[in-house]
Write a structure and sequence with these properties.
The complex is a heterotrimer.
Chain A: H1 12-38, H2 43-50, H3 53-86, H4 92-98, H5 101-104, H6 107-118, H7 125-128, H8 139-164, H9 167-175, H10 180-209, H11 212-218, H12 228-237, H13 241-275
Helix pairs in contact in A: 1-13, 3-8, 3-10, 6-8, 6-11, 8-10, 8-11, 9-10, 10-13, 12-13
Chain B: H1 2-19, H2 24-53, H3 57-66, H4 68-101, H5 107-119, H6 122-133, H7 140-145, H8 154-165, H9 168-180, H10 183-190, H11 195-206, H12 208-224, H13 227-233, H14 243-252, H15 256-292
Helix pairs in contact in B: 2-15, 3-15, 4-8, 4-9, 4-12, 4-14, 6-8, 6-13, 8-12, 8-13, 9-12, 10-11, 12-15, 14-15
Chain C: E1 3-12, E2 15-25, E3 30-34, H1 41-49, E4 56-61, E5 64-65, E6 76-79, H2 91-100, H3 110-123, H4 139-152, E7 157-161, H5 169-186, E8 189-194, H6 197-203, E9 206-211, E10 214-219, H7 221-226, H8 231-236, E11 241-245, E12 248-252, E13 257-260, E14 268-276, E15 281-288, E16 294-300, H9 301-307, E17 314-319, E18 323-324
Parallel strand pairs in C: 3-8, 3-9, 6-7, 7-8
Antiparallel strand pairs in C: 1-2, 1-4, 4-5, 9-10, 11-12, 12-18, 13-17, 14-15, 14-17, 15-16
Helix pairs in contact in C: 2-3, 2-4, 3-4
Classes of the chains: A mainly alpha, B mainly alpha, C alpha+beta.
Amino acid sequence: MTTRKKHLLPGFGLSLGYTLVYLSLIVLIPLAAVFIRTTELSFNEFWAVVTTPRVLATYRLTFGASLIAALINLVFGLLTAWVLVRYQFFGKKILDALVDFPFALPTAVAGISLTAIYAPNGWLGHWLEPHGIKVAFTPLGVVVALTFIGLPFVVRTVQPVLEDFSAEAEEAAASLGANRWQTFYKVILPAIWPALLTGFSLAFARAVGEYGSVIFIAGNMPMISEITPLMIITKLEQYDYAGATAIAAVLLVISFILLLLINVLQWWSSHRHGAR
Amino acid sequence: MMHSTQLQQYQGKIAYKRATSESAWVRWSLIGLALAFLGIFLLLPLAAVFAEALRKGWDVYLAAITESDALSAMKLTLIASLVSVPLNLLFGVAAAWAITKFDFRGKNFLITLIDLPFAVSPVIAGLIFVLIFGLQGWFGEWLIDHDLKVVFAVPGIILATIFVTFPFVARELIPLMQAQGKEEEEAALVLGASGWKILWHVTLPNVKWGLIYGVILTNARAMGEFGAVSVVSGHIRGMTNTMPLHVEILYNEYNYAAAFAVASLLTLLALVTLVLKTYVEWQAARDAAAQEKEVTV
Amino acid sequence: MGITIQQISKGFGQFSALRDINLNVPSGELVALLGPSGCGKTTLLRIIAGLESPDNGQVLFDGVDTTHADVRERQVGFVFQHYALFRHMTVFENVAFGLRVRPRETRPSNAEIKKRVHDLLKLVQLDWLADRYPPQLSGGQRQRIALARALAVEPKVLLLDEPFGALDAKVRKDLRRWLRRLHDELHVTSVFVTHDQEEALEVADTIVVMNHGQVEQVGSPQAVYDQPATPFVYEFLGNVNAFETPQGKGFVRPYEIAVSREPGLNSIAGALTYVHSVGSLVRLEIKRTDNEQYVDVELGREQFNQLNFQQGETVYLKPTQLRVF
């Protein structure tokens, strides 16, 4: 009976042990610090810190702008994935590779570059400004930055599913008399829906925590264009560790819930995919 | 008889073409719309970096990237990457080995924990190390007593970088090694190979491209990280400034040309990353295709 | 080297893969573990190899308890179902692997390795493929390379998991004759797993028929085919007709039935519904009048031509041999 659980390949203890120790030291213990330090505040103090009007305004902007940016990426990400998978055109391969550019570009560079484009004297800014559209240094700028950094997610989750999608199902729909649009929303869309949702939540989750690309273009005016991660830094710079930690705890909990949601979505999507 | 079936097949082919593709008008509208979106959100920011960097000419550009603070920022960025990439590589291989070659309880939970740093805001990634090693942190007093500095110093920057790049290699390797199964390792074992030999001669060569891919992504993120490093750095010029932080400082001093000059180097790094990444994907796809092809003699 | 299996049991969670298996493989024999998928035959093979450990029982090699010995110490050669060739190594390096990973003291010199590998490649008649990579080989070639790799370490026991499973019918037939000849040449105790009765009957000295984690019968091909010990063995090896008799269920092979136009004592009436006459045997499909079940009958072509049955005709059947369980 003692040999029952014996592992065949060597190195189980060493590799798992190393994994757990490293994971604990770098990730788990440091993250726990946020929650442990938060308990230094009483609940009332905690509540007061995380619900001041200025902090509440940052939540509204962070989540609102993240949501809008993720929605933009949902639509245009699907469009981009569709065009890249289905059509042939000049420069397609280069564009395909460039989709990952926002992943690879340091966020600070993205931030100053977008600011340069949308500033009142920038390439796009000087076209938009006369029409009363201000992008840089307004909440709209935040949406632009978050759209940029979230761009690859929907494209990269939908693309493989669209590639694998069997031509037979489409042909079957067509043979049964469906037109292109009906085929798309009755046959193709349901099949890529889990992937779309996963990409959407990944883009949203990334946007909620984003800092570097936003702070340059946002203008960071309290109550108007200040995001929650910046609020944490502001508190830190005022040596208000407790305040910074409390807000971080709120943001962390929300991020964890999003991560959980994404895992459930991916599980759902892989099961649907596998069952097909 | 023969002739009419051929005709039917031919007609069927035309009908199929029509049934599962859009009209040219729709097709080109969709392509146009996608190109406009990618143009505004990808190409424009890319072009803007270089246009702004060279706005005041080559001399200013060269001066900005060869100035001593810029050079020390490059050095620090390189150090942070040189330390965090190997550490996370080692971790990724160990984690993937444990997770894909053995069955144990809580495996899926462990995978989720490894993914955690992806879900955490970079700002919080910096904050946690301040909470532990900062002046008011858990080890703050002990560090002062021993005259050691973590936060607002190089070790803090390295720690934050390790944290934000933590999952990349593991994430690439785990699905790959899962898909390859254990049979080759078992075969090596029956032939008498030790664990290290199996890892080195059998497992790693099989996941070579995934491994390189993970390293490329880790390196790109390590060199470009801003938020987390910004919190722990203290922004001491020439001392604790990485390249992205140096860009921020120059920018905030309204020295736009210099800021964009340094930024252009980071942008080039991003482009090189994309090229390497595409190359690795291409190689991996080629290997996979070669494996599926079966020659019968 | 002889292998003795004593009271081996193995479960995976709720599922019991092997129950109290006892088996003896004499030295130098070629033994087939035969059974339907999920019968536990591969698990048993992996336990012999040391790739799996049993919950209970012992594995003895030449009387020595090896149950807890490491795979690497057992000196077994294992040929995996999908060959598990190392994709990134040449054929030569694949075969040399087992020699190269030996500790320095017992590792042969490079020249020796080279000679050994080439000898083995010659043995499997593939020395011209030494510099190819596994993906460039056909299924049958991969199979033989996998065998050469297993033999390189001079195993005391050769274990093969569905060695011909992944091959097409023609290659399969050639390879199994070749394996038989190779075994006659090398005389290494060999155990192979298969679900194909024809394969087991043609290649093995001894067949172990397994079902639901238990051994149903052990014997020579002749013995298990002609004197099946259980209804399962009867049905699994070859075609068989089942009859309800007052004593229990009776089994008759299709060639053990006499057919005539005249009713006889205890004969069964039926309609000839189909005549399949390709090859030396003619297969008749007869629908019984009493219970509408179908009976398969095989006749020699000459006999059939003499009797000249017509489709739709009423005929009378009588088993010449009936085994009742």
